[in-house]
Specification:
alpha+beta, globular, Alpha-Beta Plaits, Ubiquitin-like (UB roll)
């Protein structure tokens, strides 16, 4: 019986914000920085996803590099000197936050309001947000007849809220094109490839294959795209309905971990409960079975718990 080869990783020593840090070879700058309990804003980065360097809010300064580098993807190197909060870095993050907040709705993006205040971002200096389009204008924009000069900033903003199933809602006015849903649906996890980025430039948008209605697409309703969405563009319908009614209140919610009852795989579920009702189901990212992913039954099949007949 042959021995299993073991790959040994070296310890890399580098400097971060004037402090000597030791990290494992292959780790990213972001991982090394988070070990110091220093915050670097991230939107498109996901703990279980391949970095795609789309949002650019995690940029840091590396000595010797002409340009800022994405900390979520750049690997540590021996002797590297990193600055995470210099003037160049802060100005870059301020600009990115301004661009995002001036073109999409970040109201349900965790930490966005705090980051905007922390970096002194002023989205209003780019003018008022694009006004909502009438239904006919939205339909034309979605059909590909949209032009940037028509009073809309992007096709993602021009799309109406899509409610075509009882599991989740798509509100692309909140979409920042971070690609996390595409990665989660594709090679990283689900391998369903039901969604992708369609169009180019101002017409770029998340769409199903051939722009088919979601129920007619390859979507298997696993909800793993919702799990990784950083802005609320993809949201449980139960959460959307409560938010729409002004009743969503995370401070009143409790979380209970349990095992999915539907099969023997052993997926761990985190039940989010408000007023004695399950409002959504997630799974821990560090769970060895799920890594945050679930199937349609585990993610959305919780209604039987609370549909009790009154006798």
């Amino acid at each position: 019986m042959s021995a299993v080869p073991v790959t040994l990783r070296r310890v890399v020593e580098l400097e971060i914000d004037g402090q000597t840090v030791r990290a494992m070879e292959g780790q990213t700058i972001l991982q090394a920085v988070r070990a110091l309990d220093v915050e670097i804003p991230t939107l498109c980065w996901g703990e279980t996803l391949t970095p795609v360097n789309a949002c650019r809010v995690c940029m840091v300064e590396v000595e010797g590099s002409r340009v800022l580098v994405p900390s979520c993807a750049r690997k540590v190197e021996p002797g590297m000197v990193v600055r995470t909060n210099g003037d160049r870095v802060r100005h870059s993050r301020k600009m990115v936050l301004e661009f995002l907040a001036s073109s999409v709705d970040l109201s349900t993006t965790p930490n966005a309001a705090r980051w905007i205040e922390e970096y002194g971002a002023e989205p209003d200096r780019y003018g008022p947000a694009a006004p909502p389009a009438a239904a006919g204008e939205r339909d034309r924009a979605h059909a590909g007849h949209h032009h940037p000069g028509d009073g809309q900033t992007a096709a993602t903003v021009a799309q109406p809220v899509k409610i075509d199933n009882e599991s989740y809602v798509r509100d692309y006015s909140k979409c920042i094109l971070c690609y996390k849903c595409v990665e989660g649906c594709g090679e990283d996890w689900q391998n369903t490839f039901a969604i992708a980025v369609a169009g180019r430039g101002f017409d770029a948008r998340i769409a199903t294959e051939f722009d088919a209605p979601l129920p007619d697409s390859a979507c298997v309703y696993c909800g793993n795209c919702i799990a990784v969405c950083p802005t609320g563009a993809l949201m449980f319908k139960s959460e959307y309905d409560l938010r729409h009614a002004g009743q969503w209140d995370e401070e009143r919610q409790t979380q209970t971990d349990t095992i999915c009852p539907y099969c023997g795989v052993g997926c761990e579920l985190t039940l989010h409960v408000q007023d004695n009702e399950i409002v959504k189901v997630t799974s821990p990212l560090d769970h060895s079975v799920t890594h945050g992913n679930l199937c349609v039954k585990g993610r959305f099949g919780f209604q039987f718990v609370q549909n009790r007949e009154k006798r």
